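Q: What does the assembly look like in three dimensions?
Context provided by user:
Components: two
Sequences:
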Amino acid sequence: MQLSQKHIDYWKKNLVITAILVFIWFFVTFVIGYYAIDLKDITFLGFPIAFYMGAQGSLIVYVLIIWFYASYMNKLDLEYGVHEGEDQ
Amino acid sequence: MSNGAAPAFSQKTFTQQLKKYYAFYTGGFISFVILLAIAEQMGLPNRWIGYCFLFATILLYAGIGVMSRTADVAEYYVAGRRVPALFNGMATGADWMSAASFIAMAGGLYLQGYDGLAFIMGWTGGYCLVALFLAPYLRKFGQFTIPDFLGARYGGHIPRMVGMCAAILCSFTYVVAQIYGVGVITTRFTGVQFEVGVFLGLAGILVCSFLGGMRAVTWTQVAQYIILILAYMIPLVMLGMRHTGIPVPHVAYGYTLQKITQKEQQLAQDPKELEVRGIFKKRADDADAKVKGLPASYGTEKAAVEKNLADLRAANAEPAKLKLAEDALKAFPPSPEAAKKKWETDRAAATARTGPPRPHATPFPGASEKARDIARKNFLALVFCLMVGTAALPHILMRYYTTPSVREARVSVTWSLFFIFLLYFSAPVLAVLVKYEMYHFVVGTAFADLPRWVANWHAVDRSLLNIVDINGDGIVQLAEIAIGGDIVVLATPEIAKLPYVISGLVAAGGLAAALSTADGLLLTIANALSHDLYYKLINPQASTKTRLTVAKMLLLVVAVLAASVAAQKPADILFLVSAAFSLAAAGFFPALTLGIFWKRANKWGATLGMLAGVGVTFYYMCITQPWLRSVFGVKGTIAENTWWDISPISAGLFGVPLGFIVIIVVSLLTKAPEKEVQELVDHVRYPVLEGDMDTRGT
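A: Here is the predicted structure of the complete assembly.
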């Protein structure tokens, strides 16, 4: 089983998108969490923004991250010819 | 599906059929609830409504379990690998959300405010790691258990065995807590004894999984998800309508939160509140003086209680007063040691009630800069451990073996988190709405005019709600209310003035949450034993029939064992559950991710990395957690033993990085893995490769 250049490119693209999404995940969770005290005077829909992010905002971002990854990778599979048949 | 060549329409038809079945089922369940509601109006007693929900739902799960019985290995272990993404998402949701998520989480948020959000973020954000690092690759690998992957990737029996032990360790502590939860719910809503409740629940768990393994568990979990989400959302939407005027309180409760914050500031200064807190301060000081005065204070206190009784008798006091004094003497601790324990408990209980209300929306409230900093550190550490632990718990990862393809596995993680999100996104809303009710309609009300739900719950269970007129003014002060977190979910139907049938529905939802999680966990443990230990190690020649018989027998044994442990009501069960996350995180996450993303990781690196990760995590818990400290007789105070002020629940903060470092260093120092292993890594990285190997388990 020899990997072609195409395969290597596919894996690189996968790593890049994974890294970007992990960064967003990290930012939303830990950076905003760390600065929660300093953000207390900003409000959104009546919520202090730190509370909103912890209770709702970050959750929405998590769902979007996973949804985006699934659709991006499923397209990438087709583009690079590593997709599975309909039946699998 | 044996060689993946079934005709294209079959999977599509299958999905269509499933959608039809479950839509029909949901409609049927709603009609059942409506019928019970009508019966209630006609005078069906509450207890019977509880019975109807309990037996009807267990019967339903049993029906699905029996219909899904199977004699095929791939059906038994991975539901035949044909669970569509949407349904696997629902099953994962039910598998994931336990009694703790369903009943205790909103209560935790009520009590802890912002700091409780660590659980909300931790238990959802972990799915990002599942999606990005694990699910698609494990699906491509396509065997039966998580130790299977460790065994194939790292070669030899040692990594498999270490993985198996870690899987059993974290799943068993978790399943004991679930069965305990089942016992509590059945007891509360039907009035049977706790032990009977536990074994009733056990029957409910076994009928789902015994005959059909993963296949049966999958289809009952989908059914359980539907019940649990209906049970959570209906009362919330009704309560939300009352407060915000719209059926989606999620977008509008920010203003409710503002009102709570204003009320908190007012209550912090209120003279009546200060008076009550002053009384608690005095009680705490008294208890403190008694503890400090030991052993001499034991004699003087006892003499005082005896003298009080003697005086009353001499004065021919009224019988009620005499009875009180007699009870006080009977309840007096029998020895100075017992007295120390009791007074210390009294001191802690009183001290806890001397402070102003905890500000709900403020992150990390604390007296000093240092206290706030420690709170923040622990919050972030806990979020980290819960997230990584989520992405390492075998019963969750196993679910992604069951989808038809890598593509579906990716989509299925999206659905999983979406279905989990529905509940987690709602829990903070519920906590705020119930707090609003409490602060505005209970606090400041005369004891004679309390809302009916308060009186009801006060009569049912004092550990959930206890209001005593401490300063004797006839009005409820916030400081006079002691509350157990579980009441937030349990009492919502009554607060929203809904009929009892909705309370029954909430109980059925809690039961579904506990049963579905227990099912997934039991199956993980039994499969680790039957597949990884028996088939892969002891008897690789075993026939299909023998393998399934062994698997079913082990399931039975593990279930009975877990139920017997739960029936003992073990102490510190909550700690054990949270510990499972740190242990799973440190044990599995580094070995699994490096196995996929780093070809150079080898057998010795992985084995030692897993051992070091679990080892240091467990060690840290032993030196800092009160119960484990007493078990192992640890010397030195907790404060001396902590590293960087991290609490024991987040011990994985040290275990996970150490696991990564050990795997990397040891792998680099030892021989690179063989060519076949490197090809296996390529195999899992690409959904399809030409001339690919086939690693699917049979």
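Follow-up: The longest strand of chain B covers residues 465-467.
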